[in-house]
Automatic annotation (TrEMBL):
Keyword Acetylation: yes
Boundaries of every PH domain copy: 4-101
Protein family according to the UniProt entry: Belongs to the OSBP family.
This protein's name: Oxysterol-binding protein
One Pfam short name: PH
SMART domains per the UniProt record, alphabetical: PH
Organism: Chordeiles acutipennis (Lesser nighthawk)
Any one GO molecular-function label of the UniProt entry: sterol binding
Entry keywords, A to Z: Acetylation, Endosome, Golgi apparatus, Lipid transport, Lipid-binding, Membrane, Transport
One GO BP annotation of this record: lipid transport
PROSITE patterns assigned: OSBP, PH_DOMAIN
Recorded superkingdom: Eukaryota
Job of this protein: Plays a role in regulating ADIPOQ and FABP4 levels in differentiating adipocytes and is also involved in regulation of adipocyte triglyceride storage. Weakly binds 25-hydroxycholesterol. Interacts with OSBPL9 to function as lipid transfer proteins.
Residue spans crossing the bilayer: none
């Protein structure tokens, strides 16, 4: 109560892309639980330009900088605000959170339980009945009746009686049963005809009904908290009422049409329950570790991601997730279902971009600056095909802060191009394995070694750093990437914020480059990946640059995965090389001398990376860290994989909370922030 005073002052408010940020005078009215703003202080006596109810609101400091924060009202309205400095932001955020919590609790104490509302499917009648002969002016909602469940006459809704939650639970059970009936009725519809089970309106109704039931479960949990606080007198110190994860186990709610609703603890595998009970915060040694390449063995793991079964089975979970998202929403903090995960960490995915080390090493062998730039562009465009595992769009694991991944490649010197001939080897995968095995008996002088290390250097925002080097050729690449994902309706877009620098020490040259955006398309049916956006490669010393466009498929017509680009000399503005084709198929390079070269990416030899066995890896190396999740996914046990994943994420949250309380900064292991 000491902190419940009204506060006021100027803040910057984001309006839109056209208007941008504007100074406005804000007033926090604690008594009414309102945040109001005016054009300026002089207009305080007038009607506010805008008002937000703070009961049920969420106050969030932004990751963008130390000055910005957002106020998300329960109505869905949002204010994006910016203070003059970090101290002022903290002052506003703490006062707003105190006011919000006070009024949220007051609503729960003063309001009786709400009556539930549910949907029921109308009788279908014969196939020729007018109700089934759907007209264009109708939509699927007209086939459903909305009604309130009334209690028997004379029975009043009890107000805060000891057993009042029993009635609420009973009504919710009825609603859950009717919601399951609704889902079954929709799924029993034919797959073709006027009204089908794949009708877009019906799919959305399935998603929103599930989201509604999970929201009601969250509300019921809040009521239980408030009931406990009344019996004990007050909530425990530090308790905040917040939206929790759904009480219904989504992975089991609809599996092959069978409805299941068991308590989460029962669904949890016994091995995971025991493991979670002994998980302790891992105190990492932050000293860089020298990896012995002789301990690394050729990787035999080959997890292709072509299985659609899980996606088909979990359609209702995808619909539930979509019903909670808004267009443009940042997915960084959204927990995505486990069945859409690849069996590798994002850090290992970056390593797979290096699967053609012969092309990487060949860059520095170019005899002229022009040739070296062209070789880098050729290597760059061939790296994305192997970075994707299979045709299905699945998501790598989000790396845990402090997670690392180490590997290396050995490349016979005879397979690295030394002249303008650009020795693109076209060995088949089976031939390549034989070549790799032959390396075991060769002396160190017969091959080059490319070493790779990646580290998750930040959790919010999620930033990864990766570094690769070939000491013999005095070349290295150093990059950092912040993966910003957004919901775009029927697709998800990932912007790769950051840059990389390729250093050729023999020539004293640095090439800066960026990465394209990635899109997961058709997330309701067969998800697939495409790249999009313009990237630039530039070498200041030589004056050569490259501009590459990854083209997304137009709505009508057009080719998939198309890429075009050109390399030019900036001083004379002369184009020395043009490229076109598909980044996952065939690329055509046309040079200034009239020559043309075709590169079939599907036939390029892939050099297997070398990785230490699990027993020799540290506890925070990717494969050892995620091994239980990976094994469960391979076995097809989605529930067990989810529990292992949740245990890792919960440990990360606990450690982050501990660092915040003790004001201990995070120390990176291999990378320094500039």
């Amino acid at each position: 109560s000491d902190h419940m005073e009204n506060i006021y002052g100027y803040l910057m408010k984001y309006t839109n892309l056209v208007t941008g940020w504007q100074y406005r005078f804000f007033v926090l009215n604690n008594d009414a639980g309102l945040l109001e703003y005016f054009v300026n202080e002089q207009s305080r006596h007038l009607k506010p330009r805008g008002t937000l109810q703070l009961a049920g609101a969420v106050i969030s400091p932004s990751d963008e900088d130390s000055h910005t924060f957002t106020v998300n009202a329960a109505s869905g309205e949002q204010y994006k605000l910016r203070a003059t400095d970090a101290k002022e932001r903290q002052h506003w955020v703490s006062r707003l959170q105190i006011c919000t919590q006070h009024h949220t609790e007051a609503i729960g104490k003063n309001n009786p339980p709400l009556k539930s509302r549910s949907f029921s499917l109308a009788s279908q009648g014969s196939a020729n009945s007018p109700g089934v002969q759907r007209r264009l002016s109708q939509n699927a909602v007209s086939f459903f009746n909305v009604g309130h469940h009334r209690l028997p006459t004379g029975k009043r809704v009890p107000i805060m009686q000891p057993d009042h939650l029993v009635d609420v639970r009973e009504m919710m059970s009825q609603a859950e049963g009717q919601q399951r009936d609704l889902i079954r009725s929709i799924e029993c519809l034919p797959v073709s005809g006027h009204l089908t089970s794949l009708d877009q309106d019906l799919l959305m109704l399935k998603a929103t009904s599930m989201a509604t039931m999970n929201c009601l479960n969250d509300c019921f949990h809040i009521l239980q908290l408030q009931d406990a606080s009344q019996q004990k007198g007050s909530l425990p110190a530090g308790t905040t009422i917040s939206w929790l994860e759904p009480k219904i186990s989504l992975a089991n709610h609809f599996k092959n049409g069978a409805a299941q609703n068991f308590p989460a603890e029962i669904n949890k595998p016994a091995s995971v329950r025991e493991e979670q009970s002994v998980v302790e915060p891992c105190q990492l040694t932050r000293e860089p570790e020298e990896i012995n390449p002789d301990e690394e063995l050729e990787d035999i793991c080959d997890d292709k991601e072509d299985d659609l079964g899980a996606v088909e089975e979990q359609r209702s979970v995808i619909l539930h997730l979509l019903s909670q998202l808004k267009l443009g929403m940042d997915l960084t903090r959204v927990v995505l279902p486990t069945f859409i995960l690849e069996k590798r960490s994002l850090l290992e995915m970056y390593a797979d971009f290096m699967s053609h080390p012969n092309l990487f090493i060949a860059i520095t062998n170019g005899t002229t600056p022009e040739e070296r730039m062209i070789r880098f562009v050729e290597y760059y465009l061939t790296s994305f095909h192997e970075g994707r595992k299979g045709a299905i769009a699945k998501k790598p694991y989000n790396p845990i802060i402090g997670e690392t991944f180490h590997c290396s490649w050995r490349m016979p010197k005879s397979q690295v191009a030394t002249d303008a001939g650009h020795n693109f080897s076209a060995h088949s995968p089976s031939e390549q394995v034989i070549l790799s095995k032959d390396l075991e008996g060769q002396t160190e002088l017969d091959y080059y070694t490319v070493k790779f290390v990646a580290e998750q250097v930040s959790h919010h925002p999620p930033v990864s750093g990766f570094y690769a080097e070939c000491v013999e050729r005095k070349m290295c690449v150093n990059a950092h990437v912040w993966t910003k994902s957004k919901f775009l309706g029927m697709s998800i877009g990932v912007t790769m914020v950051g840059e990389g620098i390729l250093s050729l020490l023999e020539h004293g040259e640095e090439y800066t480059f960026s990465l394209p955006c990635a899109y997961a398309r058709s997330i309701l049916t067969v998800p697939w990946v495409e790249l999009g956006g313009k990237v630039n490669i530039n070498c200041v010393k030589t004056g050569y640059s490259a501009s590459i466009n990854f083209h997304t498929k137009p709505f009508y017509g057009g080719k998939l995965h198309r890429v075009t680009g050109e390399v030019k000399q900036n001083t004379t503005n002369t184009v020395v090389c043009r490229v076109q084709g598909e980044w996952n198929s065939v690329l055509e390079f046309t040079y200034s001398n009239g020559e043309t070269k075709y590169v079939d990416l599907t036939k390029l030899s892939v050099t297997r990376k070398r990785v230490r066995p699990l027993e020799k890896q540290g506890p925070f190396e990717s494969r050892r860290l995620w091994q239980h999740v990976t094994e469960s996914l391979r076995d097809g046990d989605i529930d067990k994989a989810t529990e292992h994943k949740r245990a890792l994420e919960e440990r990360q949250r606990n450690e982050e909370r501990l660092r915040a309380e003790t004001e201990t900064p995070w120390c990176t292991k291999y990378f320094l922030k500039e």
